[in-house]
Every structure is written in structure tokens, then in C-alpha cells.
Design brief:
Strand content: under 5%
Number of strands: 0
Oligomer: single chain
Order of helices and strands: HHHHHH
Largest sheet: none
Helix content: over 70%
Radius of gyration: 42 Å
Distance between the termini: 24 Å
Length: 195
């Protein structure tokens, strides 16, 4: 009983402190992850705003460009013979070259739209991660409360195990060691006090 009490006392002395250390360390890691995700989210929001502003500037086109867009017919609608006939004309070739050079102005900037969609997807991912991290933060708060409980139980455990150790040593001395001491004193012819 005495040795069991000592072993439990040592366990109650070190385990709660180690457990509290692990919990506090995970909370610090979670708070760091939250800060990183907030910064990434802010940067992506700024990039999204910048891309939206550029898209608005490019989309604000003149009424002439809108009319031209309405009258444009995709090249895939023409047959090979029609295209060959048109390409014989130098003005048509020059006009076609101009359209190819300024294609984004006529058809709009699809690349910017794709970039904006990509930024939105990243931003959505960051928002999902932020929700996940907030859940982890709630878990860390719960674990911190649990760490307080573990510390309190460790203190109570130390007291109880110290009491068990002391009682175990007393019972050992009364039941075994004192009897052995009496037997040894009798063998050595030393007068024994009655108990």
C-alpha cells in the first residue's frame, strides 16, 4: 500500500502538469493558425476588390463597342469557302487582324472573370478554414477548462495518495516491522518494552 501510494503520488505530481502543458501548447498553435488565416483572408479580399475594380473599368465600354459586339458573328459560323473569299480582300484581312489584336475588348475579358472566380474559390476556402479554426478554438477553450479540472484533480490526488502512502508505511511498520524488531531484540537478548 505504501509503495502504491508513492507511485500514485508521483503520477499525480507530474501527469496533470504535463497534460496542462500540452493543452496550452495546442491552444497557442490554434491561435497562430487563426491569425494566419485572417491575414490570408484579408489579402485575398484586397486582391478580389482590386480584380473587381479592374473588371468594372474594362466592362465600362462605349455604346459603339456594345453595338459592334452585337453584330459580331463567330468565325465558326462561316464555311471554308466563305472565309477563303473574304480573306482575299485586304481590308477584311486587316479588319480581322485588328479584331484578333483587340479580341478582349470586343468579347470581354474572360481571363479576368476566371481569375476572379479563382480568387473567390480561395476566399471561400479560407472562410471554411476560419470556421474550422473557430471550432478548434472552442475546443481549445473546453480543453483549457478541462486543464483546470485536471489540475484540481491532480492536487486532490496528491493529497489522497500522500495520505495512502503515510497510512501504508504506518500499517507496514505496525504489522511487520515492529514484529520483526521484537523478534530481533529477543534474539539479541535486549529487553523489549510491551506495546
Amino acid at each position: 500500500m505504501a509503495l502504491t501510494g508513492m507511485i500514485l503520488f508521483i503520477f499525480c505530481l507530474f501527469y496533470p502538469n504535463w497534460r496542462v502543458y500540452v493543452i496550452e501548447k495546442s491552444e497557442i498553435e490554434i491561435l497562430g493558425k487563426i491569425n494566419i488565416i485572417k491575414v490570408e483572408s484579408t489579402l485575398l479580399d484586397n486582391e478580389l476588390d482590386r480584380a473587381s475594380t479592374e473588371n468594372l473599368k474594362r466592362d465600362s465600354v462605349s455604346s459603339e463597342t456594345i453595338k459592334i459586339r452585337k453584330n459580331l458573328i463567330p468565325i465558326s459560323n462561316y464555311t471554308y469557302e466563305e472565309l477563303a473569299h473574304y480573306f482575299k480582300d485586304k481590308q477584311f484581312r486587316d479588319a480581322y487582324e485588328f479584331v484578333l489584336d483587340h479580341e478582349q475588348q470586343f468579347y470581354g475579358n474572360n481571363k479576368r472573370g476566371e481569375e476572379t472566380d479563382e480568387i473567390r474559390k480561395k476566399n471561400d476556402k479560407i472562410r471554411i478554414n476560419l470556421v474550422e479554426v473557430n471550432n478548434l478554438q472552442d475546443l481549445a477553450a473546453f480543453e483549457k477548462k478541462r486543464a483546470g479540472y485536471i489540475s484540481d484533480m491532480g492536487l486532490i490526488g496528491r493529497f489522497i495518495t500522500a495520505l495512502i502512502s503515510i497510512l501504508g508505511f504506518i500499517f507496514w511498520y505496525v504489522n511487520y516491522q515492529s514484529v520483526q524488531d521484537k523478534i530481533l531484540k529477543q534474539q539479541l537478548n535486549i529487553p523489549v518494552r510491551p506495546t
